[in-house]
Amino acid sequence: MTFTIQNVLLAIDDGYTTSDVQVVDGKIVAVAPNLDVVGDIIDGTNKLLLPGFVNAHTHSSEMWQRGVISILPLELWLAELYDFAPIDTEKVYLSALGTAVETLLSGGTSVVDHLVLIPGQELETIASAVRAYQEVGIRAFIAPLLQDESLSAGLPAGDSSQSHEPFFRSTTATLAIIEEAIKQFHRPDEGVYILVAPTGIQLCTDALFAGCIELSDRYNLCRHSHLLETKAQAKLAQEKYGCSAVTHLKQIGYLGDRTSLAHCVWLNDADITILADTKSTVVHNPLSNLRLGSGIAPILKYRQAGVNVTFGCDGASSNDSQDLLEAIKIGAILHNVTDFDYRHWITPRQAVEMASLGGVKALNLADQLGSITVGKEADLVLYNLTNLSLMPRTDPIGLLVLGRPTNVVDSAWVKGKQIVANGQVTTINVDELRQELFNLSEWTTQRQSPTRTQLEHHYRHIMGLSS
Amino acid sequence: MTFTIQNVLLAIDDGYTTSDVQVVDGKIVAVAPNLDVVGDIIDGTNKLLLPGFVNAHTHSSEMWQRGVISILPLELWLAELYDFAPIDTEKVYLSALGTAVETLLSGGTSVVDHLVLIPGQELETIASAVRAYQEVGIRAFIAPLLQDESLSAGLPAGDSSQSHEPFFRSTTATLAIIEEAIKQFHRPDEGVYILVAPTGIQLCTDALFAGCIELSDRYNLCRHSHLLETKAQAKLAQEKYGCSAVTHLKQIGYLGDRTSLAHCVWLNDADITILADTKSTVVHNPLSNLRLGSGIAPILKYRQAGVNVTFGCDGASSNDSQDLLEAIKIGAILHNVTDFDYRHWITPRQAVEMASLGGVKALNLADQLGSITVGKEADLVLYNLTNLSLMPRTDPIGLLVLGRPTNVVDSAWVKGKQIVANGQVTTINVDELRQELFNLSEWTTQRQSPTRTQLEHHYRHIMGLSS
């Protein structure tokens, strides 16, 4: 927890400086050249130190289906996802380990896991993820994914008169589970945080949102949700509320500076103003928005309006990776095609700030994390700049963000505890994890999803697609 | 050149089969289970064999500026690129090695290098790239980048009356250099091919195109060019020809089944029909099109019109990597946001075919390469499916295309010669290359590009951007 990094590159203004960084008891206590050594010495030569990034939206157990879900829009993709979701807490544990490892080895020191709960084993699911993240040592924000309406209710009705099965668990029972989870697992001092996290307006009643707001206020928890990921959800919001989803969420009091909202693809200018006014955070998941054809989120508009934006990988079956550097690259350059004025485009340095400080703002921790500042906690990542994927030498941050860095994370610390060293996660046996993931899976190709079959005709109809 | 791969996964129909593959004297001679062993035995267990991909458009020497060029649209980015271009053939040699290595380790066995020529050392530049590619053993298509107009002529004039410096080298002298390059270096039997490759309508006279067509016909060479990468180029074409660039290229006879055209972002439906009718190939460079804000090429429309499409990384300072799997992933999923009907979206298997067979079609070699077919040459890549980045096991091709594979290329062969084994390039010392790239470069940040400064005011004016 106490160490001195010597002669490391740090980003300053528009350039770099070579400096030492001292960490004592998990906090950054000095940043200057030629410091006296305290604790272990870390050689920073030809390395760049950045604050750890936040993987600000993922669903860890989706890892079990990465690479295999058909090329479909969200609503039908979800049907296939649900039909084959893992129902085994050991698998939840392993995919949380995998998510933590991939996040760490791509520069993340925090992960927001919008965790799919196994029906009837909700607390056990959460416990499995908590165990995994604590073993790895990554800072974990567990946002149990809640809904109280059944999957088919997530589609707009259009001109049909659809009725939906009630969800198997009551709103009250769901909220009781979350309160129990808070009591059992919310341990900020230990780096484990519970968030309230209704999946989104498409599958949640106002009662569920209200219960989550109440828990959030009572226990001082951050709030998370999907928001307007698809055009179908924008249609549904109009059907359900007669106004935009953002207006509705504002009216019921869900927005605020502790609220982060994943996707935010289908917002209009008035919605954007609401996000800015409420100081809500947008979590940009560029790869899943492309994979699912959801659209290009208006990220440049958010930034111009002063909305805080950060990045997420999203679950590994809609991406299908957990590499934060990939999400940051695509999330930065994608928007250049939405505005001819290149002065609005995101620079590599801005992308790094969005991924670090932007991420911790979403989690109400900007005073404690997200920059290399004396007094802040040492969630830090040291990049080895001599890797072939970063050669020849040019601008280190440009290479990291715009290149395709591979095996470049040398070391990572969370609260000053080193959990990656020499490019390897030190807290768990990653090769054993790899072997277990291998053993518990098999090569799979064509799968038939009954729920997809059931929903597809209606989906095509309401989206105006030929049948 | 003679070996037997045993028990390897091969893609068939919509699934996979486990088979052996026999290669004799560089050609695939048998594909079936339980073949008699000839030559070396390669264990294919838990591995997938695919035809090698084609990195169908790049500029190798841009590697020297990757990560450092400002976030700018093509026309201003080019100004910065030109101001700092390497003028040393040893650097050309090293960046060609680097391009070959990154292409190989991401599944490519062929590279089309639209090679920037050092003024006054044109043949030496080509010789340096040829030497690099022959040492590595990758199949190399060298397309010396030609122009006969000066950089500022590449911008539309708009309402201004611009005059431009003449280009420093005459059209005749340029064509003479290319003819000499053909005589010295075009050796298809040795895996080195010269292409004729005017940079594009924005910097080339019709006389240069005509000369290239003549050389192409006389020496049976493929043709390459940029085409309508930016909106500015579409404007320029109207100014220059009074018609679309595609119509003009058709009229002058540049299009055809040996012609590949990089980018193709700003084409209309009539243009697309011309590409289909002439059997021209589109090389999709999704990452540079995003990085430079050029736009999203209408790839789904090309596919629906029957136009052959393949992928390129583009130069490493507009991407800024040479990872083909990254280009294939983004090039496949990007278009899902351009069409709500997911039945038009590109599947992982289609992406693999575009990258392999689509690539060799562009090079007039579809009868010899691009699939695992008896009688074809053995340009093959063997992927290790047990890497953590491909875990858990699901659909191998889905994982390769949609994931973020890292260190997964186990082996690669070109014409049956193994040039990657156990994940390492065997023909050159990659660590020495890394060290040389390190030694010949330095950390760089802010650079002032005089040519950018000179062009920027006019660029903003003609693009309708506020000054």
Give the arrangement of secondary structure elements.
2 copies of one chain form a homodimer.
Chain A lengths: L2 E10 L2 E10 L2 E6 L7 E4 L3 E5 L1 E6 L15 H10 L5 H16 L3 E8 L6 H15 L2 E6 L26 H15 L6 E3 L11 H14 L3 E5 L3 H11 L3 H7 L7 E5 L5 H10 L2 E4 L1 H6 L7 H7 L2 E4 L12 H10 L14 H8 L1 H6 L17 E5 L11 H7 L6 E6 L2 E5 L2 E2 L4 H10 L10 H13 L5
Parallel strand pairs in A: 1-4, 6-7, 7-8, 8-9, 10-11, 11-12, 12-13
Antiparallel strand pairs in A: 1-2, 2-3, 5-14, 14-15, 15-16, 16-17
In a nutshell, what does this entry contain?
With 467 residues, the first copy, chain A, is of the alpha/beta class. Chain A has 16 helices and 17 strands.
Note down, in words, how this protein is organized.
The structure is a homodimer of 467-residue chains. In chain A, the strands form 4 sheets. In chain A, strands 5-14-15-16-17 form a 5-stranded antiparallel sheet, with no helix packed on it. The first copy, chain A, has a 4-stranded mixed sheet with strand order 3-2-1-4, with no helix packed on it. In chain A, helix 4 runs parallel beside helix 5. Chain A is globular, with a radius of gyration of 22 Å. Chain A is α/β, with parallel strands linked by helices. At the A-B interface, helix 2, helix 9, helix 11, helix 14 and helix 15 of A face helix 2, helix 9, helix 11, helix 14 and helix 15 of B.
